[in-house]
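HUMAN: Spend a minute on the protein record below and explain its fold to me.
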Amino acid sequence: MRRKKKRHLEETSYWLSYSDMMAALLLIFVLIISFTMLQSQRRYEQKQEELKQQQALVQSQQEQLQEQQEQLDKLIGIRTELIEALKKEFDGTDLSVKVDEKTGSIALDSSILFDSGQFALKSSGEELLQKFLPKYIGVLTDKQFNDYISEIIIEGHTDTQGDYLYNLELSQKRALSVATFCLDENKKVLSTAKITKLRKIVTANGKSFSNPILDKDGKEDQNASRRVEFLFRLKDDEMINDISDILNN
């Protein structure tokens, strides 16, 4: 009897210990599952937050690109309108000048401006500039374009004959002669107000024979190469190039 009772007590104690262990294991298992689910929920929420941030970034970039595209279109439109205004200004005049369709640059025949190898303006050159400058500067300083002009560049060019450095000096002096005439108040070609503005934005550069004019056969046209060019830059030209690169990429 005592042995049976003892065995019964031992079996009861054994099953109680086993059930306690199983309960503990079950609790641990539940805790692990809960922890895993909590971690998964946190990772999900983090991914959702990252996704929202990425979407917001993409939307912001798209809006910036849209703004840049609109700005680019506006600036390109200004350049186009300015070139058209220059063409219209010189059409029908006795001035044989051609406005470049892409850049708006205008080349003046060096033989009219200077004697061969010289940089002092001839009388025919002064007469040409007296007719040309009021029209050219008048368009660029018009209220429609005035705020967009950052620089007016006067470039001297030579043909490829002779030494590069000699031609560099000659082209520089010729560009400077034209710029000096343009900015000289005593010439009475431009108003004092326009000259004051031009003094802040006009530059004179000599290019030697670095940019010769070629004919249809690829040979140099020496008469055309000897020239003085008037060019303009818009305030946002660099930005236009940067935006174009971004949009193209």
Q: What stands out?
A: The beta strands are 106-109, 149-157, 202-206, 227-234.
